[in-house]
Design goal:
heterodimer, A: alpha/beta, Rossmann fold, eight-stranded mixed sheet, 12 strands, globular, B: alpha/beta, 2 domains, four-stranded antiparallel sheet, 15 helices, about 20% strand
């Protein structure tokens, strides 16, 4: 568009995030604060960047969505929050959970934080359950590990309550995973994540393999838990429409960086970054004649982390790329009071 | 798009079951009376939840499963279940599965994966040229650059294109695609759907897409059949079914789509029920929001919903739903069961 005109501004803006509206959570105490998080995986001595400088905040009772395609770093980011990454991962930056840095914790402190303060519902939950143990025992295990003084009977009672809370009948505690449907298994995983009443829940693609109706049930359950318990929820998905309808705020990741963040509904309806626009357009609004017999995709593949140059990582696939996109590393800029996007076309005048 | 004279594949009064021994009705009726046809050059979407029988129906259409009642017709002739007959059918009707990574042999190159069908069917002609043609039809261009690649060197979207090329190389009339984009990234999804659409436009290919994604139907399908517990409960032109659903089940499915802003979501409790215990009367009645809300009661048909068996929807014909209410109040069902259909266009 009017890229030439904006060229002079591009340079001073790059590398700084000073003008970005950081959090909408002014006043509320930050449950989670991530500052300049970077993760690389060492592959035969060569570091491959997976997360390249991410800042995020989340308050209690808030839901944050993380969107992006495979390989964009969203699951690495989730794993880093609880230090669950493989040994070849190198992590730097700060992950402040209730003010203390997860990255600097001793193993003992970390063990206390996992489950008690924060827990993860993993992708493909159906396969994360142990097939030869009843689901009740698996939930009780988490309770007993973190409250060793609890008796077996108390744990059993708690398991029943947890299952009821997520909409699974308590007698199902005796069931083995193969006896449950996909939606029930996903609920069991959520019950397990709730076992030690954490303040932060990270759900990585919790509904990806589920039917629309079951997906709606699980998402409603998660929303309820946020409202009733005031937990902070990070929901990770490649489906922007799911995030837009569930989350207060959504951050879109591309090649290890957040390229746009803002209120969920606005990101879906009116994205500023061309990548976020493409993600939003991938899921049609039924009834919108523009998408009837016109599926929209995004040509090309995400960049190889080995080949990330200095410019905007999205430039090679970007329909509106201009010359400076290749030259300058463009960081998040203010779109308006609620939103920011890392695109050269984003309003400098705003 | 009225009654077409060129159905490629048809299901007639199709019943497929599991678990029974010998004769008689088997205990699990996965497909329980289905009439469906896919015409030449038509894209039909078959939508439903897990357990609705949509995959069993697709497998039966391919001859992988045999019905205990009713039949499958290929160009009007019943399927020949001899191994020669099935081999001939599978050259004309190809299957594309959900997970391209699982469908490709990791130790075989793209060339070998695509050429395999040609070798099995002993297709005459220049193999290299045929493989190259199929790859470029599937959008992998220049094709020669992909010949010696292995699946792990490709992205998810490219792998699905290889699987589609493997189907196209035999010049089929019909592709049956079971959740072709469910395991792909959002950005790749549209690319693969656009490919299916262009194959229909350019080659006159027919496509039956099995999916739980109504957005996919909106994106590419001419006709949409919604399946519930072994039966098609609503069928018609995609625009009609999605803009003015007549069955409370379709309305509920539409209402829970994340992007359905402005609609009150109707979340059905429980999951798709058990095909070994199909309820009497309307098979949807235990979960039906129109029955639960008293709408059926007010229309004076609640008893019939619970007790009266509904006929199978006819093979051809206009937009229709297997719901007693649809005859009473027509399109009002969408408003009654799924909130107001704001954002929808009536067709």
């Amino acid at each position: 568009m009017n890229g030439e005109q904006r060229a002079p501004q591009a340079q001073p803006d790059s590398g700084t995030q000073a003008r970005v509206p950081h959090a909408r959570t002014a006043g509320a105490p930050g449950l989670l604060e991530i500052r300049d998080l970077r993760v690389s995986y060492r592959d035969r001595g060569v570091p491959l960047p997976a997360v390249r400088g991410v800042d995020l905040t989340l308050a209690a009772g808030e839901t944050l969505g993380l969107a992006g395609e495979s390989g964009c770093g969203k699951s690495t980011l989730a794993g880093a929050m609880l230090r669950l990454l493989p040994g070849n991962a190198e992590v730097s930056g700060e992950i402040l959970l209730n003010g203390s840095d997860v990255l600097k914790m001793s193993w003992g402190q970390l063990r206390a934080v996992r489950w008690n303060e924060a827990s993860i519902v993993f992708q493909g939950a159906m396969h994360a359950l142990n097939p030869v143990r009843s689901v009740g025992r698996q939930i009780a295990e988490a309770i007993l590990l973190h409250a060793p003084k609890a008796s077996a009977a108390t744990a059993r009672k708690q398991v029943g309550e947890l299952l009821e809370q997520v909409g699974v009948p308590a007698w199902r505690a005796e069931s083995y995973p193969h006896e449950l449907s996909g939606g029930q298994k996903q609920r069991v995983m959520i019950a397990m994540a709730l076992a030690c009443s954490p303040q932060l829940i990270i759900a990585d693609e919790p509904t990806t393999a589920l039917d629309v109706m079951v997906q709606a049930q699980v998402l409603t359950l998660l929303k309820q838990l946020v409202q009733e318990r005031g937990v902070g929820l990070i929901l990770i998905s490649h489906d922007l429409s799911v995030l837009a309808s569930t989350c207060d705020r959504v951050a879109v990741m591309y090649a290890g960086r957040i390229v746009e963040q803002g209120p969920g509904h606005r990101l879906f309806a009116d994205a500023a970054h061309p990548y976020a626009q493409a993600l939003a357009a991938a899921f049609p609004v039924i009834g919108d004649m523009a998408s009837r017999r016109a599926p929209r995709g995004l040509p090309g593949d995400p960049p190889d982390p080995r080949e990330l140059g200095g410019g905007c990582a999205f430039a090679p696939r970007c329909p509106v790329a201009v010359a400076e996109c290749v030259e300058y590393d463009i960081r998040l800029r203010t779109v308006d009071t609620e939103r920011s996007a890392a695109c050269v076309h984003v309003g400098v005048s705003a | 798009m009225s009654v077409s004279l060129h159905p490629v594949l048809e299901a007639r009064n199709l019943h497929v079951g599991f678990g029974g021994r010998g004769k008689g009705v088997p205990p699990v009726r996965a497909v329980d009376g289905v009439e469906l046809s896919v015409d030449k050059g038509q894209i039909v979407a078959l939508a439903g939840e897990s357990g609705s029988g949509k995959t069993t129906l697709a497998r039966t259409l391919l001859g992988l499963q045999r019905p205990y009642e009713g039949q499958v017709l290929h160009h009007g002739r019943p399927l020949d279940y001899s191994s020669r007959g099935l081999k001939a059918l599978r050259r004309k009707v190809q299957l594309v599965l959900q997970d391209p990574t699982g469908a490709l042999n990791p130790r075989r190159t793209v060339y070998e994966a695509v050429a395999e069908g040609l070798r099995i069917h002993k297709v005459p002609g220049n193999e290299r040229e045929l493989v190259a043609k199929a790859l470029s039809q599937a959008g992998l261009r220049p094709a020669e650059r992909f010949f010696q690649r292995y699946p792990h060197e490709l992205s998810g979207g490219q792998r699905q294109r290889v699987v589609i090329a493997g189907a196209l190389v035999l010049e089929p009339e019909l592709i049956i695609a079971d959740e072709p984009v469910a395991s792909l990234d959002a950005s790749v999804r549209g690319e693969i759907l656009a490919l299916l659409l262009s194959l229909r436009d350019e080659l006159g290919l027919s496509v039956l897409v099995v999916t739980h994604d109504l957005g996919l139907a909106w994106n590419i399908a001419d006709r949409l059949a919604v399946m519930y517990l072994g039966r098609i409960v609503e069928v018609g032109r995609t625009e009609q079914v999605l803009a003015a659903p007549k069955h409370p089940y379709t309305a509920a499915l539409l209402s829970v789509l994340p992007e359905a802003t402005g609609r009150t979501p109707v979340i059905l409790s429980g999951e798709s029920p058990d095909p070994s215990r199909i309820p009497p009367g309307c098979r949807f009645h235990p979960r039906c929001p129109a029955l639960a809300s008293g709408l059926a009661q007010r229309a004076g048909i609640a008893e019939r919903c619970v007790g009266e068996t509904l006929p199978v929807l006819p093979l051809h014909g206009p937009h229709a739903a297997a719901c007693l209410l649809s005859g009473h109040i027509g399109d009002g069902i969408a408003g009654a069961a799924g909130g107001s259909p704001t954002g929808l266009m009536s067709v």
